[in-house]
Amino acid sequence: MEWANFLRTAAVIFLLCVTCLLVKELLNFLRSHVYFQPWDIPKPKCNQILFFISTFWSLYKQRRPESPYMCLLLQGLYGVSIAERNQRIGVLTLGIKPAVFFGKAETVEVVLSSSTLIEKSTEYKFMYPWLGTGLFTSPAVKWRHRRKLLTPTFHFTILEDFIPVFQEQSSVLVSKLQDLTKEPWVDIVPLLTSCTLDIICQTAMGVSINAQKGENHEYVKAIRSHLLSDGTMIGGIFAMVIEFYLDRTVIAQLL
């Protein structure tokens, strides 16, 4: 009897701890997002949550086993861009997080040329275990300091030395696409990512990994597993599930 009471007490304590952790994560999430803050940016004249749910449900009904989910996502984004094509700037709620979109190139130019709008969004955090806080992922203060160090050493004439690499890897990509001309449809993402990976590794690091030719496929597979993992963007709660340990294995392969 005493043992049963001990187990019940332990179970209650465990559930309370889990609840506290979930509440903590929820509060951190709400503090780091701006969904409930007022916006001066134009947005679609409809309920944002209902709009997201209806769009998601429509895409879900159109899913096919032979069609990658990314195609449906791009289809949804294209539909939004068509519906809001007359807006210079707008905001759309993706789930419970707002996302700003641009409909005119002039608006994009203002944002990209800004010296203050350089803080990375939370979506970059899932790359920290793999890439750390380098130039691509670093916060604004760190990025600005490193950019000042690198800018004097870089010039576009450097890219001229890489043109033979671009041509070589592009030829491999074209030959692979030619072999797929009779297919009803082609998922071009793996082909382009392998080509890009070959170019980046050969130009920036001086290493040929031949990803397009099927070599070093473990590295390529590890990158895809990390980027498409269901838990890569969840954060603290993610560390409590078994997928965390699986992803640590993937990160070890990448490093």
TrEMBL record:
GO cellular component, one term: endoplasmic reticulum membrane
Keyword Cell membrane: no
Compartment(s) where it occurs, according to its Swiss-Prot or TrEMBL record: Endoplasmic reticulum membrane
UniProt cross-references to Gene3D superfamilies, sorted A to Z: Cytochrome P450 (1.10.630.10)
A molecular function GO annotation: iron ion binding
InterPro entries: Cyt_P450, Cyt_P450_E_grp-II, Cyt_P450_sf, Cytochrome_P450_Monoox
Obligatory cofactor(s): heme
The entry's keywords: Endoplasmic reticulum, Heme, Iron, Membrane, Metal-binding, Monooxygenase, Oxidoreductase
UniProt xrefs under Pfam families: p450 (PF00067)
Family: Belongs to the cytochrome P450 family.
Name of the protein described by the UniProt record: Cytochrome P450 4V2
